[in-house]
Specification:
By secondary structure, the chain is mostly helical. It has a domain of 26 residues. Helices cover 43% and strands 0% of the residues. The protein is built from 3 helices and no strands. The longest helix has 20 residues.
């Protein structure tokens, strides 16, 4: 938590027609900065969006340590299901 800090962003990609769509990049950047503080647990000290990501990373590590390999469903490989 704390005081918000400015973020310096450099865009290194230009669209197929050679134009830079700053509104597109600004919308995506803003969506990545949103945090959901809702939680089912009292006194949770981190945003639920970060907690779920941390929990999934932990469970994947335990799963891989226990079972070795892992193959994701091909449909899930093509979609941003983790977001």
């Amino acid at each position: 938590m704390g005081t918000p800090r400015p973020l310096d962003v450099s865009v290194n990609r230009i669209s197929a027609n050679g134009e830079l769509d700053m509104k597109f990049y600004a919308q995506h950047l803003l969506s990545l900065t949103r945090l959901n503080w809702a939680s089912t647990k009292d006194f949770c000290r981190e945003p639920i969006t970060l907690k779920f990501a941390s929990d999934i990373a932990y469970l994947m590590n335990v799963f891989l340590a226990s079972f070795g390999s892992f193959t994701l469903n091909s449909r899930l490989e093509r979609t941003p299901w983790f977001l």
